[in-house]
Write a structure and sequence with these properties.
Elements lengths: L1 E8 L2 E8 L9 H15 L4 E7 L3 H9 L3 E6 L2 H5 L4 E3 L2 E3 L2 E7 L1
Length: 104
């Protein structure tokens, strides 16, 4: 399990590089990791935490919403612009970045 908090603007941090080993997925570790990141961001004095995920990341989108994040925008064609090889998840090509935030 791993994640990082990346300061992006004054009082705002982005949750990046979230990873749960495939054999450990579906056991609540991702939710605990996200909740801990939100707690740490709040403790560090940030007022907003943001996260981005792919349009094909259906499970992750649901997880972030369960953890209090709201969708705030779509960065169209993000993954086709910045990644040479196509990414596919859940039978869907990952093209767009779904941006989400939570006020702390």
């Amino acid at each position: 399990m791993s994640s990082s908090l990346l300061p992006t603007r004054p009082l705002t941090v982005e949750l990046v590089n979230i990873a749960i080993k495939e054999s450990k997925q579906g056991k609540g570790y991702g939710k605990k990791l996200v909740q801990h990141a939100v707690y740490m961001a709040r403790e560090l004095g940030y007022k907003m935490i943001e996260v981005g995920t792919g349009n094909s990341s259906i499970t992750q989108i649901g997880l972030y919403q369960k953890c209090g994040f709201q969708m705030i925008g779509i960065d169209k064609e993000y993954f086709t612009r910045y990644y040479k090889e196509p990414i596919h998840e859940n039978g869907i090509q990952c093209k767009d970045m779904i941006r989400m935030k939570q006020d702390l």
